[in-house]
Amino acid sequence: MKRYAFLVGCLFPLCWSGPAWAVQGHGQAEGPVVHLMAHLLLLVALLLLLYVLHTKPPDTGLSWRSLKLSLIFFLLWDMDHLFIHWFAGDMYHDIKELGGSLVEDSFVAPRTPLNFIYYLGRFDHLLCVPALWFFTVALRDFCEVIEKRRQRRAGQVS
Amino acid sequence: MEEAFNFPLFPVYLVDYLGATVMVFLAFCALYFARRLTRMEPKNILWAYFFWFSLVMVIFSISRGVGHLLPYVFRIANIPELWDVLDPYSGGLNTIALCGVAILTLHYHSTAVLIDRAKSDALSLEIANDRLREAHADLFRLNQTLEQQVEERTHDLRLSEEKFRGFFEGSKDMIYFCDAGGRLCDINESGLNLLGVERRSDIVGQPLAEFFLDRERGAQYRALLATDRQAKDFEAEFVGREDGPLYLMITASAITDRAGVTQGYQGIAKDLTHFKKMMEQLVHSEKMTSVGQLAAGVAHEINTPLGIILGYAQLLEEDFQEQTEVHETLKIIEKQAKICRRIVADLLNFSRQTLEHNKLYGDINQSLGEVLAIVNHTLNMDHIFVHPCLAENLPRTCFDNERLRQVFVNLLTNAHHAIGSEGIIGVWSRWHEESGQIEIIIGDSGSGIPADQLGRIFDPFYTTKGVGKGTGLGLSVSFGIIQDHKGRIEVKSPPLEPELVALDMHTTFHIFLPVVCAGQEKEA
Amino acid sequence: MAQILVLDDVEDAGILIRRILQKKGHVVHVFHDEDEALRFTEKNPVDLAILDMNLPKMDGLDVLCEMQKSLPNLPAIMLTGLPDIKTAQQAFALGATAYCAKPIDKDRLEERVADALLEGAHAAKP
């Protein structure tokens, strides 16, 4: 209960989370570094989880494929953020050209491969949506299997 | 300088907006499934982790979704600067969220390991518990069945003991147990009766060999048991009865322990007395029969030359009537030939086969009375007095009066000879209802009969009288007559009954006749 | 005076009876073989038969039976070493006049013979 409250407490401020830019900039020197460290930490954690699931799946009766896929996407999303933050820094924060309306908004930059990758990197939802999708699917599958198991056991008992 | 490129941001906005909406929806779905999983398997830490993860994702996606609106709201409201102020806070919170998820994930691992360890401990505990429960159940079952088994065994043992005890006590033969020294440990009721002992305690501890009449025989018995460890059908005479010898046939064996050491002896003794008596009587009567047959044959053969001798002697007598000396001689020859004839006649009489001649219903007491009347005079001349004691309740029976009187005469004559002069002859008649027998006793106060002669007095030609004084056939003939009446005749010297001894009887003849009711009603 | 037949397997016994009866004046024929005696009676009538009961080939009573075929109502005296009532009854049933035990007294024999002849004479009279 306490943990719940603590986490909620932690997450509450997220309601006022970032703007339309999925990836945000950090003003002072500490900000970006802390953020990068957080992403790194998440990367390590996700890698570890993936590794454990691959070598010692907790329940051999379940298919971990969807979950692993989801974790891979979460990893990619995290790496994408890392790249965006680390490589690009704040520089691109200033290069955006605000047009009259949202439709006209664009960001101007030299036509380098790095910039192109950065532009692509901005479509990070293309990574985290599949990630969450696979996560949900995995959970749904788990539910089905566990449900079937329980029914079978109940059938056996009765 | 490179050419500047215009990367349109509208697609980005579109993807962001749509993506964020989808994210919210997916996050709620994930949360729902995660909740179900935790409900179904509350002990599974992975589901718990997924639940928290989903929760974070829900809040994260909601906040991002809401966060999309705010900038546009501010931009439309022409206060984009306000977003710039809030921006770092939201960024910071993002970072914290990321850390939170990472720590959550890492925490899950360590917890998972701990949980696994705890699970395996719990499993081994459960296994151990199961084993313990099984062992307990086994023990309980064993205990129950043990009780039952013990009860059953005790019951079986008791039954077996009862069976044995019943057999031991109920057996009409003597069953006994001796220790290794040959002393009696236990003996059954029949054994006590046979040996004439009242209580078991009187006899326990005494050596069995003491009860043998002949010490030698007892020693032989013990020697046999010692060497062969068994004695089968060992016959011996025993001490025990007042009314005569006790013949027992013992079958005994040694009781050994596992090492083969003799612990004691057990045996069964059968009372052969009656059997032996019967055998003796049978042998006796067989002897008599064969003698009888011999006698008949001899008599018959002798009759012929005897007749011729007698005849010629008589012829010559006629011829030599005047010549006295020759005549006297011939007369002597005739007399002796006649004596021979009488002997042969007696012999033939004795050997006669059983014919039911002349058995008529009558009163034995009357016959006795008649005989006594005849001999009384002769006896009184030698100062011998007759003491009659005839039972009044004597029933009538069928008998050959003539021949039975012959028997009485025989016995009284013998009694007379035994006494010589100055004595008493006792005559008794008794009715034994339980055996259906009439007993007639003729006793005398004479010299008595030595034990070694008792077995032979009924033999033909056996006589203690001098030559010429008796043929020795009297008792044999009497024996035959009594046998013919399906009775038996016995001699006791000295008599066993105190009443008889008190009257100074030294020899008693006992005649037993079964009461026969042949249906004839003619008076004797 | 009378014709008497004596049958006994012991010769001396037969001779003795002949000597006793001859003194009384009878004619005595002694036989010790049954067949010879029977052949004799077939041809020669006798007034009395004295028969031993115990003969080697035939029973004395059977001999009497045979004799009675040729000489009915023949008086007979049966002599036996082993007298018993049954054979005595049989003998009398066949018509024997006397049944005597051996060895027989001289005087008794003479008496019995006289009685038998007398009876025979009475029987012969019509």
Give a short overview.
Chain A is mostly helical and 158 residues long. In chain A, 65% of the residues lie in helices and 4% in strands. The longest helix of chain A is centred in the C-terminal third of the chain and has 33 residues.
Average pLDDT for all residues of chain B = 83
Largest sheet of chain B: 5 strands, antiparallel
Strand order across the largest sheet of chain A: 1-2
Low-confidence stretches of chain A: 16-21
Largest binding interface between chains: A-B, 65 and 76 residues
Main sheet of chain A, how many strands, which sense, barrel?
Answer: 2 strands, antiparallel
Count of DSSP H/I helices of chain B:
12
Low-pLDDT parts of chain B are: 520-524
Instruction: Report the radius of gyration of chain B as a whole number of Å.
Output: 63 Å
Shape designation of chain B: rod-shaped
SSE-based structural type of chain A: mainly alpha
The helix count of chain A comes to 5
What is the string of SSEs of chain B from the N terminus onward?
EHHHEEHHHEEEHHEHEEHEEHEHE
Q: How many strand segments of chain B?
A: 13
How much helix, percentage-wise, in residues of chain A? Answer: 55-70%
The oligomeric state of the chains shown is heterotrimer
Helix proportion of chain B: 55-70%
**What percent strand of chain B?**
15-25%
Task: Describe it.
The complex is a heterotrimer of chains A (158), B (524) and C (126). Helices cover 65% and strands 4% of the residues of chain A. Chain A has 158 residues and is mainly alpha-helical. A two-stranded antiparallel sheet of chain A has the order 1-2. Chain B is of the alpha+beta class and 524 residues long. In chain B, the strands form 3 sheets. Chain B has a 5-stranded antiparallel β-sheet, sandwiched between helices. In chain B, strand 2 (174-179) and strand 3 form a beta hairpin. Residues 520-524 of chain B have low confidence and may be disordered. In chain C, helix 2 runs parallel beside helix 3. Chain C is globular. In chain C, strand 3, helix 3 (60-70) and strand 4 (76-80) form a beta-alpha-beta unit. By secondary structure, chain C is an alpha/beta fold. The longest helix of chain C is centred in the last third of the chain and has 19 residues, at 106-124. Chain C contains 5 helices and 5 strands, in the order βαβαβαβαβα. Chains in contact: A-B, B-C. Strand 2 (106-110) of chain A pairs antiparallel with strand 1 of chain B.
